[in-house]
């Protein structure tokens, strides 16, 4: 009888913990910075991941929630953690073209050329999707256009492969040397 009681108490605690985690991911997706801060202050691990490997920071930044992202960064969320697809929060911003979010992440120590195991940088994602303004921001922050990923491709290679003409033109021009 005592074992059953202990097991049911454990199951109830597990259910409560799972509910708190579920709420935290909802707060990150919806941008509820105050609720997210409170749940982190109560002890929820800031680098918690969901079933796809997305951290709270990945979700808040991807969905463009500046205040929630700031709260996570102030709680020491790791901006270099990749999800199960090897993407960083900065790569997600580059894909979406969210320069405000990229600046926030970079201002809080995100590596401009950080990458997952495949070596794809935020600049490569920006180039793929013809996000020239994002490319300019990343390059101004030190991104290296000539950097190669695990398959030896550069941002220019990605821009050309995806038909991102403005990005390809900008990157090609930066590689030309004066005569």
TrEMBL record:
ANK repeat residue intervals: 52-84, 85-117, 118-150
InterPro entries: Ankyrin_rpt, Ankyrin_rpt-contain_sf
Keywords, sorted A to Z: ANK repeat, Repeat
One Pfam assignment: Ank_2
Gene3D superfamilies assigned: Ankyrin repeat-containing domain
Superkingdom of origin organism: Bacteria
Protein name: Ankyrin domain protein
Organism: Cystobacter fuscus (strain ATCC 25194 / DSM 2262 / NBRC 100088 / M29)
